[in-house]
# Entry
Amino acid sequence: MADRVTICECFARDGLQHEAGFVPTETKLELLAAFTAAGFRRIEATSYSHPRHVPAFADASDVLAGLPRRDGVAYKATCPNPRAVQRAIADLDAGRGAEELSFLVSATEGHTERNLRTTRAAQWENVAEMARLAQGKFTVVGVVSVAFGCPFEGAVDPGSVVADIVRFAELGAGLITLGDTIGAATPRTVADLYRRIDRAGVEIPVVAHMHNTRGTALANCVAALDAGCRHFDTAFGGVGGHPARIAYGQGLTGNACTEDLVALFEAMGVDTGLDADRVAAASELCERALGRELYSMIAKGRKEKLDA
# Structure
């Protein structure tokens, strides 16, 4: 195989934040162990969001304490503010820390106010302080949300997004994520933005985080691949979206579906480094955890084949 990609499995954070009900810690740990066994080298495990705002992650420290540790596997936690980074450092000092921390900015003021309850200028001040606190302790993952379109302001200036990416790079981020938060991207806008990033001289890997609101997530991932991207975020069953108590966007706002993107990439000759049987087992485990059929076409096809 000529190509090799890294897929970060986001079910346990971006996926579960969208769920109205709390998934027990033991179930989360079972899922995370299955993701690790399947061969994922980057796994989004939890968030240090305030439990009052995002109760799905009230057990963040307990989840990190129970993770299966394996060489070459990095677990990621999301941090919305400096207090969250201080919690992450306390867990690290206690021997149960994450390897990566995600720091978020939104590309628009409207989404910043709704999602982070602050302004862009204030959030960048937060991020600078967060990067200072995390320096030398974690790999920082900068995330630019609503990079292709905003539910409150509509179109987003790609030049502004590139400026945010450059700013994250200057703060020492090890990876930077482009968040298509409401699924507004198209293959053309994805290719254009990656070309702009390349022209800006950004040498840090830029992760494609696509949502499938309009059914275009896989096409957008292929466009990113063709543009040179080799890092992708997905979630089993295509679940996820905005936090359950902070609604925005229209329709099904779930992530690019892990099962389907893995199958597509492997069929294209792109090596994901994942074990197909264990990916299928993890897919079934995710459906059992949420108690419903999820959105993977590959999983649906597998069930139909078994029922035939």
Notes: Residues 240 and 254 are 4 Å apart (CA to CA). The chain has a mean pLDDT of 94. Residues 120-134 form the longest helix (15 residues).
